[in-house]
Amino acid sequence: MTNTTSSFPRIAFIGGGNMASAIIGGLIRQGLPASQIEVVEPYEPSREALRQRLGIDAQPAPTAALARAGLVVWAVKPQSFREAAAPAAPHVGGAPQLSVMAGIRAGDIAAATGSARVVRCMPNTPALVGQGMTGLFAAPAVTPDDRALAERVIATTGDFLWVEREELLDAVTALSGSGPAYVFFFLEAMQQAGTELGLTPEQARRLAVGTFLGGSALAKDSPEPLATLRERVTSKGGTTYAGLTVMREKGMGEAFVAAMKAAALRAKELGDEFGR
Fold this sequence. Notes:
The protein is of the alpha/beta class and 276 residues long. Helix content is 53%, strand content 12%. The chain is built from 11 helices and 7 strands. It has helices at residues 18-29, 44-54, 81-92, 106-113, 144-155, 168-177, 179-196, 201-221, 226-233, 239-249, 252-274; strands spanning 11-14, 37-40, 71-74, 97-99, 118-122, 132-138, 158-162. A 7-stranded mixed sheet has the order 2-1-3-4-5-6-7, with helices on both faces. It is elongated.
């Protein structure tokens, strides 16, 4: 491990659900002691889960202890942001803010917290197993050190990339933020097809998941266009050609594009509805 305890300041999390837990788990694996992490989580079962799994003694409400943090991570639902920010704001304005909330814009976070040093990011649930894919955007007031700190934190959960325009985070949300659900949806269909063709559910699931893992690894390591990789599996008149022909006839490609556009629109609506 390249990161050490000295790589990170004290970090406060507003919200202690799944995504916060994924980041906290990554930080602890990188050597940050649980005692250097503050968490505010009003839901008692979530506090107990943090205590049992990660050794974190979360608080039900913000306290002055938040002022010790060198980074504040916002990990509440967009609908809960205003309610969570009001009592925390007197204690967090001196630190950079890292938001994992969908939709809530940097300017609204700055107005609610008193800190214009806002990095927005959109992680996804594979962060829970260290295989996340996160898009990040830095507001103009973010310093190079703030940016580097955000990278070190997010790198504990997997890979990341920066976008230069904030509105592109809505696209990131649609593609990779919501994307694991699309993958699971497709895996469910593959498992169902496998069982209807005579495999056991366990066999069908293993084949489906292994195929996604292998295909993704090949796509990641290959410099070739995705279309070329697809064509190499597809012989005209063969089995893959027959399957893809049905998918095209049923408009699956167009449906996936439309689904992601709908998700991006909803991300924008969340910012409009719950940010201001």
